[in-house]
Design brief:
The protein folds into two domains: 367 residues, YVTN repeat-like/Quinoprotein amine dehydrogenase (Methylamine Dehydrogenase, Chain H); 68 residues. 14% of the residues lie in helices and 33% in strands. The protein has three helices and 33 strands. The longest helix has 37 residues. The N terminus is likely disordered.
Length: 463
């Protein structure tokens, strides 16, 4: 299981200088930080409300909602982009984006042939995998261990040979994905005029806000079997996409402007600046100049699952074995980074990305272990396992007003008081979800696996 249910970061020069985000461009975690300091949402809710509205969506998705003006953009499996009216939750339009739409007739034919060949190989592998499991059990339980080990080695060899054939076909077939990750874990991004989305098939699309497709492009196919979740980043006239490599696309046409060699990871790209130079930092730890795709620094600190964070010129890579580096004030060419500290919060997978607030870094790993880290020193101030119940913590921590919201995929959300000591304020339940909540004013928007929720209390109206 490799989703990172978390995905696009967009922050402009104003954000880095002043700590606020431009309202005209929104994507994953709205501005990429997960911070909504001006929000005043309800602190308590349940499956019974309070809801302004609740909308049944076509299918599930892990992508977070994107709220822009009077519209909300969400995704739905396997390739749907859906636009919802913010006032009443009605679906205004939905558009399918199959991989075939980005291919010509010859490519579609070749893919169909490759899929048929891959299916035959899978059929050959299935009984071998069953036999492998049986042999493992026999080696543990009974006598004749040497005989079973020899048989197991022969079966493993046959599986490895077939797997190599499948791996060689990865570029020719439709990308595989994990059932939990799906093809729509990446959150869209919009500038209010157009909306952009990336799917786990390796395609990127652009629509106007009325639902008219502007372009569709196959950027690069993911070639592992766990799926893709890195959300797109919009900076000026460029759309930056990280699949295996990192690409800069012309936002108006989808044409490739540059390509920076990289490696596949699940975390989303974040935006920052070194001096007056716009850079994108992917979860492989590559710092890429947005203007031309030049890699100014490579593999600064690869992250297994989540995204980096930037605050006041410092890039934070938070996981067990993470670190903080200061970005230089100029970036005319290859840059030299200063490591400020290294940190070791509890060892496990960090699917959710960190949140930085008042000099503290808040992060939680997949098994509900919540840690607070001093942003100046990297010291782990405390770690506490949260009472979130069984499940996996995919959503990223968010800040709304003066409170933190920490969620798990069983639909439970804890409301915490941020600080150097643990303080729980409320515990809420909803349907299952893996996306990160969005807070605007006194409303909470959550993309559940079945519904899109607008949580809040209705205002009383006079007569």
């Amino acid at each position: 299981m490799r989703p990172q249910v978390v995905t696009t970061i967009l922050v402009s020069a104003i954000f880095w200088a002043a700590g606020t985000a431009p309202a005209e461009v929104v994507g994953w975690r709205t501005d990429g930080t997960g911070r909504y300091p001006q929000a005043s949402p309800p602190l308590e809710w349940s499956p019974d409300g309070p809801f302004i509205w609740k909308t049944k969506l076509p299918t599930w998705s892990n992508a977070s909602p994107v709220v822009c003006g009077n519209k909300i953009i969400v995704c739905a499996e396997p390739d749907l982009l859906v636009c919802v009216d913010r006032a009443d939750g009605k679906i205004l339009w939905q558009r399918a984006n199959p991989l075939e739409d980005a291919l010509d007739a010859e490519q579609i034919k070749d893919m169909a042939l490759a899929e048929a060949q891959a299916e035959k190989i899978q059929d050959q592998m299935s009984p071998l995998r069953r036999r492998q499991r049986q042999l493992r059990g026999s080696m543990r339980r009974g006598p004749g261990k040497e005989k079973f080990e020899a048989q197991h080695a022969e079966v493993a060899k046959q599986i490895k040979t077939l797997q190599k054939k499948l791996d060689a076909m990865a570029e020719s077939i439709k990308p595989r994905t994990h059932t939990t990750n799906g093809y729509t874990s990446a959150t869209p991004v919009t500038d209010g005029k157009r909306v952009y989305a990336v799917f786990g098939t390796g395609i990127a699309v652009c629509y106007d806000m009325r639902g008219n497709r502007q372009w569709i492009k196959l950027i690069q196919k993911p070639t592992h079997e766990w799926g893709h979740s890195s959300s797109p980043l919009l900076i000026g006239d460029k759309l930056v996409v990280h699949i295996r490599d990192t690409f800069g696309l012309d936002a108006a046409t989808g044409e490739q402007l540059w390509r920076a060699r990289s490696e596949a990871h699940w975390g989303s790209i974040i935006a920052g600046k070194t001096g007056d130079v716009n850079v994108a930092i992917n979860s492989n730890g590559d710092i890429v100049r947005v203007a031309d795709g030049a890699v100014l620094a490579g593999k600064v600190q690869p992250l297994d699952y989540n995204s980096p964070a930037i605050y006041k010129g410092v890039a934070y890579f938070i996981q067990h074995g993470g670190k903080a580096v200061r970005l230089p004030e100029a970036a005319s060419g290859e840059i030299v980074l200063k490591t400020l500290w290294k940190t070791n919060p509890p060892k496990d997978r960090y699917y959710g990305s960190p949140l930085i607030h008042n000099g503290l870094i808040h992060v939680v790993h997949r098994k509900n272990m919540y840690s607070v880290i001093d942003a100046t020193s990297g010291e782990v101030l405390f770690s506490k396992r949260l009472a979130l119940g069984s499940g996996t913590t995919y959503p990223s921590i968010t800040l709304a007003g003066e409170h933190l919201f920490v969620s798990i995929d069983n639909g439970t959300t804890l409301v915490l008081q941020p600080g150097r000591e643990y303080k729980q304020v409320a515990k809420n339940r909803l349907e299952k979800f893996r996306s990160s909540p969005v807070f605007i004013g006194d409303r909470v928007y959550i993309r559940g696996l079945e519904h899109l929720y607008c949580i809040g209390k209705r205002q009383a109206t006079g007569t």
